[in-house]
Amino acid sequence: MDLKKEFLKYFQYWPWFLVSLIVFVGAAFIFIKVVPSTYETSAMIFLDKKQEDQTKIITISTDKKSNEDKLEDEIRLITSNEFLLDVVKNLNLNFTYYEKVFTVQNNYINEVPFVLTPTVSKDSLPQISYEIKINNSGFIITDPNSERIYNVKGYDGKETVYGLPFKIQLSAKAKKSPSYYFENEYKVSLQPTSEALKELKSSLVVLSDENAKGVLELKHIGSSPDRSRKILSEIIVQLDKSIVSNKQKVFRNTVSYLNQRIKNFTKEKDSIESVKERYLQNNDIGVMDNYIVEQTADRSQKKESSQLNEKQIALTNFAINDIRQSGATQSLGANYNLESSTVNQMLVNYNAKLMDSQLILQRAQSNNPAYISLVTQLKIQKQEILNSLEGYLNFLNQTSRTNRSEQSIADAKVKSIPTKDKVLGNINSNLVTKEETYVALLQKKEEAVLNGAILESNLKTLNAPETNYSAIFPQPKAFMLGAFLLGLLVPFGITYVRLYLDTKIHNEEDIQKVITDIPILGHIPKINVSEKLDNTATSRSLIAEASRALVSNISYLLPRKKDNKGSVILFTSSIQGEGKSFCAFHNAITVSNLNKKVLLIGVDLRNPQLHDYFNVSRNARGLSNFLANKTDDWKEFLQKDTKFSKNLDVLFAGETPPNPSQLITNSNFESLIEEAKEIYDFIILDTAPVQIVSDTLNFSYLADVTVFVVKYDYTDKSNLEQVSNFIKKEQLKNVGIVINGVNMKTAYGYGYGVSYGYQYQAPKVKRPWYKRNVAIKEA
User: Where is the Polysaccharide chain length determinant N-terminal domain (predicted)?
Assistant: First the structure.
């Protein structure tokens, strides 16, 4: 990429860049001077979450991670409408006071010499501004929008003026010397609470510091640093009050809750104790441990007693059987181990009498009356013993049944001990839980009372509100630099789009991108009317020099001929208006001034232009007349040039025929050319455009050189594509291109670089810069 060429391509529009810079930089400068500067005021506070957690009376958390750095709740509180609404009301942000400096910019002031008292609700205040002046009779209040003027008499504020939403009176300080304020002019802006809240919310920024846990940064952006500091200070105060208020609310709710819970737990504890008491009474339990010992001992005693009774029954049955089997003279056993003393005594008595009977029997016979009487008594006594044993056995059986029943009851009681112990354990566990909770609630209540007595905020101000007096908007350096860059970018963008969308031909590169391997023969400069025909043999004009260069370049394309016949040069273009007639005219003059005999023929029968350069009537007889009637001699239609060159003959197109294509394709024209070659050194043909009609293509083979004319900033690139097809098909031969109408000032940088430093310089007429690039009427 040729940077110099690219630069010069845009540099030709330097006046518009200059105008754009002046406009944007000037507007930025005025904007900076007019618009009040906006400043950023910031404050930093610290919320001690650890202290807050330590002072909590009841903490319920399953999260093991610390929440010290989470300040979302505080940020939401500060930015909430309800919180900021208190700030608006406390600072009376519905009213904004200014001191007028000039008509565009105003200076915000905190203290004014008057006091405004709204006559309507602040929520219903209109969003409007008033200009206020103080004079010797009172106040003059002006509505800038409607230009309505209100006169308030007096300084005491008793008068209510219809149409004003407030009363006004002088402040206590201003009443001492009202005349001091007569020269000042003030402006007050009113807005309803909703708008003031919206404005405050939009200008407030609350951020948490990621690097410091528990730190909040408050920022307020406004044009008044004092007001911004007051707002941040008020926010800190309100936040501190809110924290304490929330703690007090939590304290009251906690104490109330604890009292209620203590009351409920007291009832629940008493109820459990009553249940335990009834349960012990119903189950005849004094102490559970003693009850277990007693029931276990009772079951053991009952079991032992039953075993002894069963043993007695067995011994009694043995004794009965033994006595029944014993003989009349056999003694009864005295070692039955019966626990019946009566039976044991009867056995002893029986054995004593049996011994007495044996003694008698030894001294007397068995029929001895005494012996018989004793034997009878022994039988009776034995039967009594058996009867006593049977009675004792019945008693024992009855006792056995009783023991079994009592033992069953004792076993049941022992078996029920675990269940009763479990039930009593649950009762005791509930009772212990209630007692522990009751004690804990009492402890928490005491802690709550103590904490409530020493409630304090966990908020600490790290940095008081401070204003950075380096304005954040508008920033002069950045703003001016931005305006400067924008002043360059806007015309650059417009120029870039214009050049990008531009399909016209401006330089050789534009041509060579479409038509390759075709030489550029020269550049015909854009000239004004006075220089249009300035092409004599001694002329040093731009058109004369350019024409000579063109002739020189064409000569390199002319084929070398062995005969002395003249050369045919054909001038054509793609469309009308590209200056082919102008180029053919000057080329003919230049060649003729080189002592060459030249014939200039106007072959464009449809729209001839050559007669304008020679001040000849368009109806003058010429080529069309000859082609229509071969009997005529074409030489009779020639006109000698007496103004530009004596070696130049001109054959004009003649009268416009109804059938130019048929005329131009008959043999008369070719015969004319062949005959003219014998007479003239050069035959120059001014032909019709090839893209509009096919006339030129019908005789293009007669030309030795085809000069294709394109016009600077006029010919479309798409037109060259069809011409390229003509060249590829050899419908146009030995083609060279000439660029016509080149603006030598703007074309520099497009690859032309034409500079005729040796030419005659006419005195320059000074013109304004905005007219220098205006297109001059061209050929």
Answer: 12-91
Q: Which two tokens stand for residue 691?
A: 């893209």
> Does pTM top 0.85 for this prediction?
no
CA distance 403 to 410: 10
Three-class secondary structure of residue 167 per DSSP: strand
Output the six-digit token pair for 569.
Answer: 């040069």
Q: What's the CATH superfamily of 508-760?
A: P-loop containing nucleotide triphosphate hydrolases (3.40.50.300)
SS3 content of the chain, % helix, strand, coil (to 5): 50, 15, 30
282: its two tokens: 């119903």
Region at 749 (left for phi over 0; alpha for psi -120 to 50; beta for the rest): left
Chain centre distance of CA 241: 34
Given a cut of 50, is residue 647 above it in pLDDT? yes
pLDDT digits (tens, 9 = 90+) for 58-67: 555 544 444 4
Between β-strands 567-573 and 682-686, what pairing exists: parallel, antiparallel or unpaired? parallel
Alpha-carbon span 164 to 132, nearest angstrom: 12
Which residue(s) pair with 42 in the sheet? 219, 466
**Greater confidence, 34 or 366?**
34
What would the two tokens of residue 433 be? Answer: 């839980």
Contact between 772 and 14 (Cβ < 8 Å): no
Nearest by Cα to 97 from 168, 162, 8, 194? 168
Distance of CA 18 to the CA centre of its chain: 38
Domain ranges of the chain: 3-35+474-501, 40-59+66-246, 508-760
Note the helical H segments in 222-364. Answer: 225-282, 288-325, 341-363
Q: How many other β-carbons are positioned within 10 Å of the β-carbon of residue 729?
A: 9
pLDDT at 767 (0 to 100)? 53
Quote the pLDDT of residue 64: 42
Q: Hey, is 196 helix, strand or coil?
A: helix
Strands 215-222 and 38-47: antiparallel
d(CA 180, CA 433): 80
Measured CA to CA, the distance from residue 143 to residue 511 in angstroms comes to 67
Mean pLDDT (whole number) for 658-676: 86
Half-sphere exposure in the Cβ direction for 560 (13 Å, CA): 0
Residue 195 has pLDDT above 70, yes or no: yes
Structure tokens at 393: 């056995």
